């Protein structure tokens, strides 16, 4: 009897300590998020820390020699390099042209395509298809369409008596052309986000407003638009970040030209890093771009939050 | 205050006809309740009156004015929605003043009317809150307040209490009844809850599959249902309906001839218990459910049917005990093969 008890007791002492439900849930939760956390550390925070470090060095890719230079790269960009301010101006012009145009067009399309009617799926597909189209194919097609002589766009303009410019070769028009073609390519994504938001607004709000005498414009301005504010904020932030990061579109359409007229920050960083091999300077430019986007996002979110309150 | 007339109203969504010809007269200041099961078309009918749904066929008059082609805002109606439809980004004050603002009523007048409505609904302390900061009952009152502010001729309520818990529903029901007494406006109220219909209505309109089954006062519907559907829809627990052959002989022996009837209805609350050998029906208690105020007995009859009986008082037969069931002649409802009520019962020779 005594032996049995001892055996039991020893068996009990071998058992692992029992975890509480909370502890077990915490372990399961960490197991679930650990792949993402590992990926985040490895592929985001790691490279970000590396870029911060590179930006404080003078590192030529060809010689593979990195010399710590402090904030010299930042000072060079901000005070000694006129190209930087020209590029920054181009990036702002691109963003200020693209973001409002993209959002206005996306919202207009969403308002038209959020209600069921015959053919609505077809139209949604038509406007969304460019989003999933290859950027290379898109750019090549548009380069043909926008050719000065013989381009389809100019041929159509000629039908109504307009002598179209050489869109991608004239500094004044190249930026307009890349903005518009980029908007047409990406507007479908924002349209889908707005459609989802519009469909989530209960139809009773509109019915109640209509019963109270509100016109379509009043319903939009006083009911729909305020309720879309959170979606508008998300769309604004992702579109703005996307516009500052644009690279492939510029690379394929104009290569930054003509006369650096479409040379935007992301493309300039690429040139500095991988064409001229100034990795330290390119990293400093990347950090400046990061700060600009961060500041714009925080300002926008603060304004929106104040608006909502 | 104003009357309302519906003439042969029909509504189709594509090939599906949901309202199949409704004729109805609603008097000045009357409180009319549309009641019926889900999908019967009651909310669609209400939305057609509001102007939120087109009318496929027929005519709607508000007062003397035909309103088929009149915009919702011009019909002089206000509606309280099931979801309340309070704008989440506006305060209670702004929600209530919304209609006045879009109609460009001056700010001072808006404030006066909002304050008046808020005072009548005890909402003054909540005027600066947002809907998310209100309880269900408070939201309901704000929705009613928003309707009152516009000073409409007709109030429309679309299942306004269905999102509230049972206790609050009873309370809000009495508030709506009090509101009607105070304002004396014409009110049309949609519900699937027959208790709400019975307690609020001057007249009830029972709808099924897009047609009116019966229109009458709550008492008329309860005591003289026009057909089997109304008889079983109104009243809780629902009316027992037994095959006529099960009781025809015994009714004949008591001097009642039910002729070619197909079914005989008896409300559970009208049946009394008696000795097994002396009742109109005889059976055995299969189940008893104590509800506090009464006990609901499930009695298996000799004929194989089950009848529900409400037994009052402490002396309730045990499960398995044989009982007799008795009912007064005036409480019997007789239905023909098509489900139509047949009355009066013919006295046997």
Automatic annotation (TrEMBL), chain A:
<keyword id="KW-0472">Membrane</keyword>
<feature type="transmembrane region" description="Helical">
    <location>
        <begin position="125"/>
        <end position="145"/>
    </location>
</feature>
<dbReference type="Pfam" id="PF00528">
    <property type="entry name" value="BPD_transp_1"/>
</dbReference>
<dbReference type="InterPro" id="IPR000515">
    <property type="entry name" value="MetI-like"/>
</dbReference>
<dbReference type="GO" id="GO:0055085">
    <property type="term" value="P:transmembrane transport"/>
</dbReference>
<feature type="transmembrane region" description="Helical">
    <location>
        <begin position="219"/>
        <end position="244"/>
    </location>
</feature>
<feature type="transmembrane region" description="Helical">
    <location>
        <begin position="29"/>
        <end position="54"/>
    </location>
</feature>
<feature type="transmembrane region" description="Helical">
    <location>
        <begin position="279"/>
        <end position="299"/>
    </location>
</feature>
<dbReference type="GO" id="GO:0005886">
    <property type="term" value="C:plasma membrane"/>
</dbReference>
<feature type="domain" description="ABC transmembrane type-1">
    <location>
        <begin position="88"/>
        <end position="300"/>
    </location>
</feature>
<keyword id="KW-1133">Transmembrane helix</keyword>
<comment type="similarity">
    <text>Belongs to the binding-protein-dependent transport system permease family.</text>
</comment>
<keyword id="KW-0812">Transmembrane</keyword>
<protein>
    <submittedName>
        <fullName>Sugar ABC transporter permease</fullName>
    </submittedName>
</protein>
<keyword id="KW-1003">Cell membrane</keyword>
<keyword id="KW-0813">Transport</keyword>
<feature type="transmembrane region" description="Helical">
    <location>
        <begin position="92"/>
        <end position="113"/>
    </location>
</feature>
<feature type="transmembrane region" description="Helical">
    <location>
        <begin position="173"/>
        <end position="198"/>
    </location>
</feature>
<dbReference type="InterPro" id="IPR051393">
    <property type="entry name" value="ABC_transporter_permease"/>
</dbReference>
<dbReference type="InterPro" id="IPR035906">
    <property type="entry name" value="MetI-like_sf"/>
</dbReference>
């Amino acid at each position: 009897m005594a032996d049995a008890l001892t055996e039991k007791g020893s068996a009990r002492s071998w058992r692992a300590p029992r975890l509480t439900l909370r502890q077990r849930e915490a372990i399961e939760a960490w197991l679930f998020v650990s792949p993402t956390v590992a990926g985040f550390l490895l592929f985001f925070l790691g490279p970000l820390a590396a870029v911060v470090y590179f930006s404080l060095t003078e590192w030529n890719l060809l010689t593979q020699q990195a010399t710590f230079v402090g904030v010299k790269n930042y000072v060079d960009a901000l005070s000694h390099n006129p190209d930087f301010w020209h590029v920054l101006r181009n990036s702002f012009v691109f963003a200020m042209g693209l973001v409002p145009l993209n959002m206005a067009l996306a919202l207009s399309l969403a308002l038209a395509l959020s209600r069921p009617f015959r053919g609505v799926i077809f139209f949604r597909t038509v406007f969304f298809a460019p989003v999933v189209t290859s950027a290379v194919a898109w750019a090549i097609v548009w380069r043909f369409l926008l050719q000065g002589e013989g381009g389809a766009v100019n041929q159509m303009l000629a039908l109504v008596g307009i002598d179209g410019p050489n869109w991608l070769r004239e500094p004044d028009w190249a930026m307009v052309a890349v903005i518009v073609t980029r908007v047409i390519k990406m507007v479908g994504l924002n349209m889908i986000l707005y459609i989802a938001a519009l469909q989530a607004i209960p139809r009773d709000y509109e019915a109640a407003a209509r019963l109270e005498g509100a016109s379509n414009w009043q319903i939009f301005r006083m009911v729909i638009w305020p309720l879309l504010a959170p979606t508008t904020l998300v769309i604004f932030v992702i579109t703005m970040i996307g516009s500052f990061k644009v690279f492939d579109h510029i690379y394929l359409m104009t290569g930054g030209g003509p006369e650096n007229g479409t040379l935007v920050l992301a493309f300039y960083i690429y040139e500095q890093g991988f064409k001229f091999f100034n990795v330290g300077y390119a990293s400093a430019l990347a950090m400046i771009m990061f700060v600009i986007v961060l500041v714009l996002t925080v300002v926008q979110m603060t304004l929106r939050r104040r608006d909502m309150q | 205050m104003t009357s309302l007339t519906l003439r042969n109203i029909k509504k189709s969504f594509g090939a599906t006809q949901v309202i199949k010809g409704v004729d109805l007269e609603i008097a000045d200041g009357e409180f009319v309740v549309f009641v019926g099961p889900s999908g019967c078309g009651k909310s669609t009918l209400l939305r057609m009156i509001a102007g939120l749904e087109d009318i496929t066929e027929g005519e709607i008059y508000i007062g003397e004015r035909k309103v088929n082609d009149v915009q919702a805002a011009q019909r002089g109606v206000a509606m309280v929605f099931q979801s309340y439809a309070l704008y989440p980004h506006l305060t209670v004050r702004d929600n209530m003043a919304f209609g006045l603002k879009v109609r460009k009523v001056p700010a001072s007048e808006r404030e006066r009317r909002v304050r008046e409505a808020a005072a009548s609904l005890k909402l003054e302390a909540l005027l600066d809150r947002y809907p998310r900061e209100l309880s269900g009952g408070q939201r309901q009152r704000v929705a009613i307040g928003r309707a009152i502010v516009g000073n409409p001729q007709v109030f429309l309520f679309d299942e306004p209490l269905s999102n509230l818990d049972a206790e609050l529903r009873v309370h809000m029901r009495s508030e709506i009844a009090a509101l009607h007494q105070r304002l004396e406006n014409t009110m049309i109220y949609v519900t699937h809850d027959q208790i709400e219909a019975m307690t609020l209505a001057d007249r009830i309109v029972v709808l099924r599959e897009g047609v009116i089954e019966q229109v009458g006062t709550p008492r008329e519907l309860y005591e003289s249902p026009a057909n089997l559907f109304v008889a079983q829809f109104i009243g809780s627990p629902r009316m027992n309906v037994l095959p006529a052959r099960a009781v025809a002989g015994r009714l004949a022996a008591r001097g009642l001839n039910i002729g070619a009837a197909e079914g005989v209805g008896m409300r559970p609350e009208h049946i009394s218990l008696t000795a097994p050998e002396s009742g109109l029906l005889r059976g055995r208690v299969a189940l008893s459910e104590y509800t506090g105020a009464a006990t609901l007995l499930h009695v298996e009859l000799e004929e194989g049917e089950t009848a529900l009986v409400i037994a009052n008082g402490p002396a309730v037969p045990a499960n398995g005990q044989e009982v007799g069931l008795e009912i007064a002649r005036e409480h019997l409802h007789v239905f023909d093969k098509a489900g139509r009520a047949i009355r009066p019962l013919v006295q046997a020779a």
